[in-house]
Amino acid sequence: MIHFDKERMKRVEEAHLKFWEGTLGRPLLNLELTDVYQVERKARAPYLDQPNCHLFEYSPAEVIEAVDEELSRHEFLADGYPRLNFAAFGPGVLAAFCGAKLEHDRGQVWFFPEHELPLSEIHVKYDPENMWVKRIKEIYKAGLERWEGLVKMGMPDLGGVMDVAATFRGSENLLLDLYDDPDEVKRLICEIEAAWYEAYKDFSAVLEPQGGHTDWSGLWSPTPSYITQCDFCYMIGPNMYREFVHDTLVRDTEKLTNVIYHLDGIGELAHLPQILSIPGLNAVQWVPGAGQKAAIEWAEVHKTILDAGKRLMITGDVLPALPEFADNTYVNVALSTDRKDYMDGLMKFYK
Questions:
Q1: Are 238 and 249 in contact (CB under 8 A)?
Q2: Which residue ranges make up each domain of the chain?
Q3: Rounded mean pLDDT of 25-42?
Q4: Residue 132: left (phi > 0), alpha (psi -120 to 50), or beta?
Q5: Considering the chain, what is the average pLDDT of its residues?
Q6: What is the pLDDT of residue 49?
């Protein structure tokens, strides 16, 4: 039994609304302890994750049973709520929905084109009959039947437009294409954008009965929202970002609401001024990347984001500096009970 109810969900939704409106007056705290309740292991399927997302021998109902069993161990604190993250099918899964190979034999999901083609011969179109699309929608339907909206199921991690382009073309080739054939790159960008929104609408239609929208960020929104990204722009300068990436992010904020940008790695900091200039962008998640100091230690980046009127998403060990920018901040933490003291520290911000 999942230890949550519809009254709690109503309060969680109200807190998220105030966060998006900028009126919450405290951090939005999506917190959970993962091992509070003892639950006998009965489910036949494993918990849905990247190493097992390809195991079609388990029915959608069996997949949902395993998730329900896992969530029944959890205690949801503050603004936390039960949810199922469909990033289990890999980051940038739109590529698979459009015909790329989904490979999982290394414990994580990666995507590769069926054939390496010249740029001019690459055409991307969303296929609603794709095996991965149908599998995810079947799991959604089983979850809706089981939970009736009490557990929020997230949008798959569709990926950034240029990231999907890099899957089909290869990153090195695509970098050269920006110089050699920019018009063809822009043509491909348009095709991927169209496929992205077709996929979003298709999955949203299935998920509509659960109420609201979420994704791998864990943030809930009553209206269509998403955490956008472009990891590819780590490798390009501000001028090329402006030419090939910026307008795709602007269009995201025009078609969606409550949009976050996933700023991943120090190579993307060069683009932060342009990203923050997007009027419809609501929040930014800063992830410094491997080998860098923890995200919480980049006070100058946090201040830049907040001074631009955007909200901030942070993860990891946030307590040391959280008081400095507590308002308009989203904290997403799931830990075992041996870190309860840390959770208690975060709960002091929950008023």
A1: no
A2: 1-37+216-351, 47-72+86-212
A3: 95
A4: alpha
A5: 95
A6: 96
47 and 70 in contact (C-beta within 8 Å)? yes
**What pLDDT was estimated at residue 254?**
97
Q: How many residues does the chain have?
A: 351
pTM: 0.96
Q: Is 167 exposed, middle or buried (0-12, 13-18, 19+ CB in 10 A)?
A: buried
Query: Residue 187: how many CA atoms within 13 Å on its side-chain side?
Result: 10
Q: What angle do CA 226, 343, 281 make, to 5 degrees?
A: 20
Residue keyed to tokens 């940008």: 261
* pLDDT computed for residue 317 by the predictor: 79
How far, in Å, CA of 225 to CA of 212, rounded? Answer: 9
106 class by beta-carbon count within 10 Å (0-12 exposed, 13-18 middle, 19+ buried): exposed
How open is the CA angle 210-21-245, to the nearest 5 degrees? 80
- DSSP 8-state class, residue 125: -
